[in-house]
Specification:
The termini are far apart. Among the domains are: 44-97, SH3 type barrels (Roll); 111-152 and 162-194, no CATH class. Strands 4-3-2-1-5 form a five-stranded antiparallel beta sheet, with no helix packed on it. The chain has nine helices and five strands; from the N terminus they run ααβββββααααααα. With 283 residues, it is α+β, with helices and mostly antiparallel strands. The chain has helices at residues 12-19, 24-35, 99-127, 139-149, 164-189, 191-194, 223-233, 239-257, 271-282; strands at residues 44-51, 57-68, 73-78, 84-87, 92-94.
Length: 283
């Protein structure tokens, strides 16, 4: 026996709720749409650094529309050509920004860029200098390095073949250091003839002058009074306290050497027997 179920016809109330004719749901949605604030597309006036085909840069007016979080750039368009552009923060001067502070920040960024480029070239020149004519370190230095590397439990007593890679690395660093000394020497005298273009390297840190006295300078003070106050407020100058501290340190060192527990148990035993074994190990 098959029972057919008729689909219920929507009543007037249901139809109104669906269509939104005076129902509470429709009224709330319409009120929400009215109260929702309209998003206004803002454009911030600024000046941007425009680059032509020849690589020359000029300042031009533009309007900033949004900030791209992934590429860390600002997106906008040029006012004269309406062409879209994406610029970094250092290439944008907003109208509400102090131009003097922007000029200082731009100068620091430009100088840092030139210095970083010079350091890359400087290290590139040194890395690619020939090293086959640089003498290797002598046998005394090699023996000293090998003795220091084999001063561990894992490498003690092994042959020197395990340190071949280390010695080759040390020789390479030694040759590179010698090339750096030679390059620095000739850079000051034959700089224009040695490389193409000047290098703007950071200034060397001034070396600290050695102290005139081989001791620490202490400001003037009343030593007998301060020593008397220290002796009155402390017991570290008493023989009894010093001996007690020595005995405590001796006992602590002895405990570090001793085995507090006996882990060498090879058979099952009762609890009392186990306690007796552990007690005898510390006695």
């Amino acid at each position: 026996m098959i029972i057919k179920r008729n689909r219920p016809t929507p009543t007037n109330t249901t139809r109104k709720a669906i269509e939104g004719d005076g129902s509470p749901v429709a009224d709330a949605q319409s009120e929400g749409k009215k109260s929702m604030p309209r998003l206004v597309k803002t454009e911030i006036p600024a000046q941007g650094l425009w680059t032509d085909r020849d690589g020359l840069c000029y300042w031009r007016r533009l309007k900033i529309q949004k900030y791209l979080l992934q590429s860390e750039r600002y997106e906008g368009y040029w006012e004269n050509t309406k062409e879209k552009c994406r610029l970094h923060r250092i290439q944008i001067l907003f109208d509400d920004e102090d131009p003097r502070e922007f000029a200082k920040r731009f100068k620091v960024a430009y100088d840092s860029r030139v210095m970083a480029d010079s350091l890359i070239k400087y290290n590139f020149y040194i890395e690619n200098m020939p090293t086959h004519q640089i003498p290797e370190i002598d046998n005394d230095e090699v023996n000293r390095i090998l003795s220091m590397t084999q001063n561990t439990k894992q490498l003690r007593g092994k042959s020197s073949s395990d340190t071949t890679t280390l010695l080759s690395e040390v020789n390479f660093e030694f040759a590179k250091t010698m090339n750096k000394i030679i390059f620095d020497k000739h850079l000051g005298t034959n700089g224009p003839n040695l490389i193409s273009g000047p290098l703007t390297l950071p200034a060397e840190k001034p070396k600290e002058l050695p102290p005139y006295y081989g001791m620490i300078t202490i400001p003037p003070h009343n030593f007998p009074e301060q020593f008397s106050n220290f002796c009155f407020n402390s017991i570290l100058n008493k023989d009894q306290s010093i001996r007690a501290m020595q005995e405590i340190r001796k006992e602590c060192n002895d405990v570090l050497v001793k085995d507090i527990y006996n882990p060498n148990i090879t058979k099952s035993m009762k609890v009392q027997e186990f306690k007796q074994i552990q007690k005898s190990s510390t006695s």
